[in-house]
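Re: that chain you flagged

S.,

Sorry for the slow reply, it's been a week of failed gels. I finally had a moment to sit down with the sequence you sent. For the record, here it is as I used it:
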Amino acid sequence: SVVVLSGLTLLWAVQRRLKPAASTALDLALPIWGVAFGLSLIGNSDDWRRIVMGLWYIGAFTVFWYILHDVIARRVIPRQRLMDALLIVGAVVIYFGYLQLFNELANPNRAGLPRPVSSFGNPNTLASFLVMVIPFGFMRAVTGRRISRIVMALYTLLAVGLLGVAFS
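Prediction finished late last night. Pasting the structure tokens below so you have them in one place:
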């Protein structure tokens, strides 16, 4: 998968060179980040492997950010579809969060209050995802048609409830 993603990234980079895109918020931050990375590498040369591993992850996230920004700016994928995709993924996350919560509440040997993690493995990560999804669900509840409003209002209430029980 790394080879396929690298190939797709290379194709995107070549295509972007042919048709330069608008600047992003990261353009100014990248040179500053590079200096910070270099200083960290110089100051902690004994941990160079971990630092370089961090470079890989931040590089992958940066490339993903640029591709996503470019796709949205060029209107290759409409924003509405991206929001729909996020809400669908959010529904799956909310489902598994409540499934974990109810399973934990049914466990007679539990100690303390359960903190669901859904598919993220960490309740704080779950909460950060829910904080991102809740405004989209709320706006759909306000602007949708009658049935859509009811469904999205329920969706938003379930997301807010799960955020509350995650204690984050």
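What I noticed first: The first helix runs from residue 2 to 18.

Talk soon,
D.
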